[in-house]
Amino acid sequence: MSPRVILDMTYAASALNSLDDWIFGTLPILMVWNLSIARRQKILVVCILAFAAIGSIATIVRIPLVSTLGDMHDFLCKISGTLYAAYH
């Protein structure tokens, strides 16, 4: 496969994963909010269901590093340099 096709598919998969995480994280919260349970229990259930956002954040952080997939010549060196530059 062409590296461009792999990059495009990875960007598409990342976008869909992020969207799915937000949909499946917020949809149950909206359903739980109208239940007749104690307010403290509602907040606890909403917090547990909001953990889907953590997966989404990890996917969003990974998106800028996807471009390094196209450089197969020295992948490890390039990705470690990109990570170093991103966090320093």
Account of the protein in words:
This protein has four helices and no strands. The protein has 88 residues and is mostly helical. It has one domain (3-87).
Keywords:
88 residues, mainly alpha, 4 helices, 75% helix, 0% strand, elongated
* Fraction in helix: over 70%
What's the main sheet like?
none
Strand fraction: under 5%
Mean pLDDT: 77
The number of distinct structural domains comes to: 1
Task: Calculate the terminal CA-CA distance, rounded to whole Å.
Answer: 34 Å
- What is the alpha-carbon Rg in Å? 18 Å
Structural class: mainly alpha
Uncertain runs: none
Give the number of DSSP strands.
Answer: 0
SSE order: HHHH
Shape: elongated
| Number of alpha- plus pi-helical segments | 4
In short:
The radius of gyration is 18 Å and the shape is elongated.
What is the topological layout?
Layout: H1 3-33, H2 39-49, H3 52-62, H4 75-87
